[in-house]
Amino acid sequence: MLNMFEVIETNHMIEQEKLDVRTITMGISLLDCCDNDLARLNEKIYNKITSYARDLVATGEAISRDFGIPIVNKRISVTPIALVGGSACKTPEDFVTVAQTLDRAAKTVGVNFIGGYSALVCKGMTPAEEHLIRSIPKALAVTERVCSSINVGSTKTGLNMDAVRLMGEIVVKTAEETRENDSLGCAKLVVFCNAPDDNPFMAGAFHGVTEADAIINVGVSGPGVVKVALEKARGENFEVLCETIKRTAFKITRVGQLVAQEASVRLGIPFGIIDLSLAPTPAVGDSVAEILEEIGLERVGAPGTTAALAMLNDQVKKGGVMASSYVGGLSGAFIPVSEDRGMIEAVAMGALTLEKLEAMTCVCSVGLDMIAIPGDTPATTIAGIIADEAAIGMINQKTTAVRIIPVIGKTVGDTVEFGGLLGYAPVMPVNPYSCEKFVTRGGRIPAPIHSFKN
User: Percentage of the chain with pLDDT > 90?
Assistant: First the structure.
C-alpha cells in the first residue's frame, strides 16, 4: 500500500520532474487472421484490431484522469506481419495493402502508432519475409502510423548477413521514398539483434508468437526524476549514487505497475510486463545525457561516459525488478540522439561522435537510435553500421538495434527537424572508408561459442 508521503512524492515527480507513463501498448495476436485470400486477410486484420483495441485510448485517458498520471501514448503491437501474410501476400505490393490496413485500423481506434510490420530473419528469409522487407519503403511512405522492425540476428543463431546487406539498401530506399519529410520514414524503421517479444516502445514493438492472444504492456519513463534525485547526492561516493538510482527506479516502476494493472482490469486483457526505460524527450529536464553529466561528466561523450552509462543502466534494472515481478521489454536507458536535448548539444559541440555512441550501446538498453547522417551515405556503409551493432548484441547476449536516418539532401553541419517526441538532430559524420567487400560476401556469421548452453 502507498502511504501519504509516497502519494505526495509521486505527485511531485509528475508535476515537477516529468515522470510519465510513456505508453500503454496492447499486443494483439493476428495468427488467427491468416488466410490465402488477400482481401479476406485484410478484412480479418482490421476487424480483430478494431474489436480488441476499440476502448484502448478511452481507457488510457480515463486512467490518466482518475490517477493524475500522464499517459503520453496509446499504441498497438501485432504479430510479425511476415508470418501473418505469408499465404496471401505473393509480392511486396501485396504486403503494402496490409500496411495500409494496419494504418486504417490504428486511425479508427485512435492510437498514435501500430508496430509489427516486421520479419524475424536472424537465420534466413522465406520468400514472404523478403517480400515484406522489400515492401518497407513504400509501406512507410503511404502510411502515417505504421512502424516496422526487422530482426537480423541473435546470440543463438548468429547474424544473417544477407538480411543485413538488404536492410542497408532498404534504409536508403525508405529515406528516398520519404525525402519530402526529411526522410522521416526511417524514424519508423528499426533493425534488431535479439529483439524482445514484449517491447512496448516504438518503432520496435511487435507481438511475439509466444505471447497470449492479447496482452497489456506498459512503458514508463522518468529521466527528470532520476536527475533530480542525483542532484541531492552530489559529492557522494558510488555506493550512495547507486542506491539513489535504484530507489528512484523502484518508485518509477511502481507507478507503471499501478497503471498496467488498472488497464488490465478495465480492458479485460491480461497484464504482460512493465518496461522501465529512461526514454528522453527533447523537453528541458527530460534527458539521459543530463543524468550522465550530473554523475560527473563535463559533457556526455567524455572519457568515462560508457562506465557511467553502464552503472546507470544496471541500477535502473535492479531497482525496477524489485518493484514488479514482471519487468520486461528493454528496461534500462535509451540514448536516442534527436530525442535528447543533452545528446543534441553534445553532438553539436563535437563531444559525442558516432563511434562513441556505438561504444555506449555495449552497455545501454538498445543501440544507435534516431541518428541523422548524410543523405549520400552508401547503403553498404549503413549495412556495416547495422552489422557492427548487431555483433555487439550477439556477442554480449543483449538487445541492440539501429534506427538511423540518411537524410536526403542534407550533409554534415545541417540540422533536421522531425517534430514532436522525435525532436531534431544535427547531421553526424560517418567514417568515409568502404566496407562493401565485407557486407556483400553473403551468408551468415556463425553464433558465438558461448551460445551453446545445452
Answer: 63
Q: Please give the domain boundaries of the chain with CATH numbers for all domains.
A: 19-193 (3.20.70.20), 219-250+274-440 (3.20.70.20)
Say what percent of the chain tops pLDDT 70: 95
d(CA 297, CA 342): 12
* 27 strand-pairing partners: 77, 215
What is the pLDDT averaged over residues 259-278? 89
Q: Is the pLDDT reported for residue 392 higher than 50?
A: yes
Q: Over the chain, what HEC string results?
A: CCCHHHHHHHHHHHHHCCCEEEEEEEEECCHHHCCCCHHHHHHHHHHHHHHHCCCHHHHHHHHHHHHCCCEEEEEEEECCHHHHCCCCCCCHHHHHHHHHHHHHHHHHHCCCEEEEEEEECCCCCCHHHHHHHHHHHHHHHHCCCEEEEEECEECCCEEEHHHHHHHHHHHHHHHHHCHHHCCHHHHHEEEEECCCCCCCCCCCCCCCCCCCCEEEEEEEECHHHHHHHHHCCCCCCHHHHHHHHHHHHHHHHHHHHHHHHHHHHHHCCCEEEEEEEECCCCCCCCCHHHHHHHHCCCCCCCCCHHHHHHHHHHHHHHHHHHHCCCECCCCEECCEHHHCHHHHHHHHCCCCCHHHHHHHCCCCCCCEEEEEEECCCCHHHHHHHHHHHHHHHHHHCCCEEEEEEEECCCCCCCEEECCHHHCEEECCCCCCCCCHHHHCCCCEECCCHHHCCC
**Per-residue pLDDT, 2:** 47
221: pLDDT strictly greater than 50:
yes
d(CA 277, CA 375): 30
Whether 80 has a pLDDT exceeding 90, the answer reads yes
Higher pLDDT, 148 or 277: 148
Please answer whether residues 335 and 343 qualify as being in contact, where contact means their C-beta atoms are separated by less than 8 angstroms. yes
Closest listed residue to residue 117, CA positions, set 386, 137, 127, 107: 137
Q: How confident is the model at residue 55 (pLDDT cuts 50, 70, 90)?
A: very high
pTM value > 0.90? yes
Distance CA 290, CA 225 (A): 11
pLDDT at 451: 80
